[in-house]
Structures are given as structure tokens and as C-alpha cells.
Write a structure and sequence with these properties.
The complex is a heterodimer of chains A (132) and B (261).
Chain A (H helix, E strand, L loop, with lengths): L4 H13 L9 H4 L6 E11 L6 E7 L5 E7 L3 H6 L12 E8 L5 E9 L4 E3 L10
Parallel strand pairs in A: 3-5
Antiparallel strand pairs in A: 1-2, 1-4, 2-3, 4-5, 5-6
Chain B lengths: L1 H21 L5 H4 L1 H17 L10 E5 L19 H9 L16 H6 L4 E6 L3 E6 L4 E6 L11 E2 L8 E7 L2 E7 L4 E2 L10 E2 L4 E9 L2 E9 L8 E9 L11 H4 L7
Antiparallel strand pairs in B: 1-2, 1-12, 2-3, 3-4, 5-6, 6-7, 7-10, 8-9, 10-11, 11-12
Helix pairs in contact in B: 1-3
Classes of the chains: A alpha+beta (132), B alpha+beta (261).
Chain lengths: 132, 261
């Protein structure tokens, strides 16, 4: 898959910064890292904070209703150091998120995202590997 | 650091000798080199007798270094080293509810040191050592003490009993921090060590030293309630140009771990 130049530039600092995971509550403990899932929906809320940033996303259920998912990311301090452009995410826009499903229902740890304009961000939380 | 501690004392003596020399009558350093040598020996002996020593340079900003391929990973836990109570405590740990970080509380010093991607800033003086941890905005200042002193001063972090009471000293090239009087908690809440209990009988010894350009923090855990034998783990840190940032953890947000129903 070819990535837009903007996406590559956005991900480079993240990959350079670190290969370790953020840790507030343990990512390795809270998320199943044996496989990824993808959800698509409308971004309803963003919170750029320590120890974890997060999104809320409304995902269409099979019966036409909307189910809220919580998507976790790294700490905002880490994301700032990585030069991560948080402003690329816009509430109300569609977004596709791929990541590790949480043990809690409807939770996900972000590994990559495709924005409404097609921009792809990989390892957007600036850290996507488990603690060691 | 050696100069900061030893040289002022030496300089005092030299200035005294210099004052005589400035009078133009006597130049003791030239006429009586044995006098200068004797003074230096005296000062050196006195400094040594008072416990002055060359301190390792640990000051600066550091970040957990495993990510940079610099060091070692956490040692795996051999569950056979746990007592029955230790195994029971670890099995009972529920990450959904028990992680103190949901309340912005650090579970232990090992948990603090284990957090990746955050800066630790170390400042040394001849009186104390100050360690500022970005994670949870922990500001730890420990006066240097004589470890042989049974009444040596220990300090605790206000409002964080899970971090015990600590004293510190230097052992050669190593800063040693000895901590007791812990409130029950968890040695770690991360990965394979998640839920390893910390009882009131926990005693930790942190040994911090330079290894190449980086730091190694070796933590020995002695807790007869939980552990059949000492559990040692080492964490490496790399130097960093990143500045220490405010963390500003708020339980209101740290508790958000699931979608609203």
C-alpha cells in the first residue's frame, strides 16, 4: 500500500522516538496483542492527555444503532516529543482505526488510523510495542 | 563533582599560603615544598575522614533506554520464588480495578522506574540527591546519609505511602537508595510482573550507576512475606535532550478506560 507523503512525514518522528509502549495502566495487560481489529465510525470526542490520550468513536451496529468505542493512545507528552500532529483528527469526521482489542468491551489500542481525507497514520500514539 | 567538594577545602589552605607569599617575604610553596605537600596530605586525610569522596556523575536528563537497544529487559519472574501469600496476592490482582495508576498513584518505586517514554531528571549535590520523575510528577529529594548510622534520616513522599521511606548514600561509583516502611501495593502493574505484591515488610535497594553513556538502575526486592529469595531487576536509561515536562495526571481522566454505556 502506498502512503501519502503527509502520512509518511507524520509517522517518521514517531518511529524514531521509541519502540516501547506508553504505560499508565499496562498496554500489555489491558489489550490483546495477539491480533488486530479495525473499526470505522465517527469521531465524537478527543482527549489529549497524560497518561493516555483517547478518542470516542460512534460505530454503526448491525441493527442501525450506534455503539461507542473508546480508542486509547500514548501520553500527550510522548506524542508531542514525536512531533505527532494531533490536529489532523477532527471531531465529526469519519475515521478508521486499526489496533489491539482491549479485554474490556469496545476498547481498542490504536496502531494505525485512516482519516476521512485518506491520510494514514501508523503508530500514531508514538509507541506501539508492548512494555518489555 | 570531586572538585566541587574537595577543592574548596584545598583552596582555603592555598590561599592562606598565598597570603604569606603576597607579602613578598616568604614563598612557602617554593621554599618549603614539603609544607605544601604536607598541607595537601592533611586536607586529603581530613576530607576522607569526613566521608568526602569522588561522586559519580549521574546528573542530567534520562529516559528509559530499553527502546534504544541499550540494555536489558525486565527479568522474568520465577513464580517459584513467591511465598504462598505472594502467589495468592499475585493471582488476586485484577488489572480492571486494582492498578493504582487509575487514581494517579504510583504503585512502587519499581513501577516508577519501569515507565517508558518519560524523562527522569537527576541533580546531585554534596548534601542530597534529587530525582524528578515526569511520570506522575514525582519530586524525590533524599539527603545523603551514613548507612552505618542507625538513626540516619529517611524521607517519604507526602501522601504516597506506597513509596516508603528512603535514605541514600554513595558506594563507590554507585548511588544507593534504601527504602523501607512501604504501604502494601504492587511491585509492578506491567506485563508479566503485573500484580506482584508489595507488603509492609518490603525492603528495596536501588543501585544507580553509569554504564557507558547510560544509566543502569538495579533494584533488589527483599520481602519475606511475598518472596522466598531476593528478586533483582535492572532497568537501563539513556541520556536524552528532552526536557522534563509536567504530567498533570488527573484521576478524573485516568479512570477513563472504557466507553460510556
Amino acid at each position: 500500500m502506498s502512503l501519502p507523503k503527509h502520512a509518511i512525514l507524520a509517522m517518521l518522528p514517531s518511529l524514531m522516538l521509541t519502540l516501547a509502549a506508553p504505560a499508565h495502566h499496562s498496554v500489555a495487560v489491558n489489550f490483546d496483542q495477539s491480533g488486530e481489529i479495525t473499526i470505522e465510525g465517527v469521531l465524537t470526542e478527543m482527549s489529549w492527555r497524560n497518561p493516555h490520550s483517547h478518542f470516542r468513536i460512534d460505530v454503526a451496529a448491525g441493527d442501525g444503532s450506534q455503539l461507542e468505542w473508546l480508542v486509547e493512545m500514548g501520553a500527550i507528552n510522548t506524542m508531542r516529543r514525536a512531533g505527532f500532529e494531533v490536529e489532523l483528527f477532527v471531531p465529526g469526521e469519519n475515521v478508521s482505526i486499526t489496533g489491539w482489542p482491549g479485554w474490556r468491551d469496545r476498547t481498542l489500542y490504536l496502531n494505525s488510523a485512516i482519516l476521512q481525507d485518506g491520510t494514514e497514520l501508523i503508530c500514531a500514539g508514538a509507541s506501539c510495542n508492548p512494555e518489555r | 563533582m570531586y572538585r566541587e567538594i574537595i577543592l574548596p577545602a584545598v583552596r582555603t589552605r592555598l590561599n592562606f599560603a598565598g597570603a604569606v607569599s603576597r607579602g613578598g617575604v616568604v614563598r612557602p610553596a617554593r621554599r618549603f615544598p614539603w609544607l605544601l605537600a604536607g598541607l595537601l596530605t592533611l586536607v586529603s586525610t581530613a576530607a576522607s575522614a569526613h566521608g568526602f569522596q569522588e561522586l559519580p556523575d549521574l546528573s542530567g536528563n534520562w529516559i528509559r533506554g530499553d527502546f534504544a537497544g541499550l540494555g536489558r529487559s525486565n527479568q522474568p519472574l520465577d513464580r517459584a520464588m513467591l511465598t504462598v501469600e505472594g502467589q495468592r496476592g499475585m493471582d488476586a490482582y485484577d488489572f480492571l480495578t486494582d492498578d493504582p495508576a487509575y487514581e494517579c498513584v504510583p504503585a512502587s518505586w519499581t513501577r516508577v522506574w519501569s515507565n517508558p517514554n518519560v524523562v527522569v531528571q537527576i541533580d546531585q549535590s554534596d548534601r542530597d540527591v534529587r530525582l524528578r520523575y515526569e511520570w506522575m510528577d514525582i519530586d524525590r529529594r533524599i539527603p545523603l546519609t551514613d548507612p552505618s548510622d542507625a538513626d540516619a534520616e529517611r524521607v517519604q513522599m507526602d501522601g504516597i505511602p506506597t513509596l516508603g521511606r528512603s535514605m541514600a548514600w554513595y558506594d563507590g561509583d554507585t548511588l544507593v537508595i534504601d527504602t523501607v516502611d512501604y504501604a502494601p501495593g504492587y511491585v509492578s502493574t506491567i506485563a508479566d510482573l503485573a500484580g506482584l505484591p508489595q507488603s509492609r515488610t518490603m525492603h528495596t535497594v536501588e543501585r544507580i550507576r553509569r554504564e557507558g553513556e547510560g544509566l543502569v538502575i538495579e533494584i533488589t526486592h527483599l520481602d519475606p512475606t511475598v518472596l522466598r529469595r531476593p528478586f533483582v531487576m535492572a532497568i537501563s536509561y539513556a541520556p536524552t535532550d528532552f526536557e522534563l515536562l509536567d504530567y498533570g495526571c488527573s484521576p478524573e481522566y485516568a479512570r477513563i478506560v472504557a466507553p460510556d454505556d
